[in-house]
Request: fold
Amino acid sequence: MENLKLSNGVEMPLEGFGVFQVPNPQECKTAVLEAIKAGYRLIDTAAVYMNEEAVGQAIKEAVSSDIVKREDLFITTKLWVSNFSYEGAKKGFSDSIKKLGLDYIDLYLLHQPYGDVYGAWKAMSELYNEKKIRAIGVSNFNNCKFIEFAEIVEIKPMVNQIELHPFYAQYDAIEIMKKYGCQPQAWGPLAEGKHGIFTHPVLTEIGKKHGKTAAQVALKWNVQRGVSILPKSVHKERIEQNFDIWNFIISDEDMKKIDALDLKHSEIIDHNNPEVVKYILSLKAE
Reply:
């Protein structure tokens, strides 16, 4: 497992475990425990996922059972748009940290680019300066919104979590982030199974050279281009398999073959779609 350094010097694992769409408390807790046992140290949740309490219970059990120390874990959660204001962000953070049962959060993100992002960021910046959060960042900020935001705020986003997988490579977004010292992080690195990614002929053929699956190749492709990844599964075998990507290297030639799969548009959720924006703004995190 490899770590990377964020712009403020904080170390973050290059691979983490995501719990999006795992609302069942027991299933979520079990999956997070299996992930920690498998070697994951970054756990990614969010207020709107409705599973922060389950993640917190898994962390508590893992620490109390001496599987891992709290300081060796990197816990990420996200503020939802219904709390995007100065006071709302303070409340949202307080609610999340209580549900997680933690004294501090390693990474706290603005989950979406809509609403009072600046009021919320001011509150998050204060929490960061008070050392209640080790790093702050954003999620789903497209190129134009990211540039606008990074140019205006005093503390620049340390992470931008966006859709990144072989069918939506977003090299332009990665380059923009680098100019502002921001680390790209991939949600949906396996494209939520779209385009037959688990059996895709290009990925499968490359995998055969290394004794790896198509999914493992897709994950390693992102890692090799400097992108942090957050695969998700509730199945023990797949959880372990997704983590077993650190003992092979994809050649430059094969990296280019994977690059060629890029469709240059979102395959999961298009944040430029007006109906998507309306839907997101209608959701509550409580």
Observations:
- The beta strands are 3-5, 11-13, 16-18, 42-44, 74-79, 105-110, 133-139, 159-163, 183-187, 228-229.
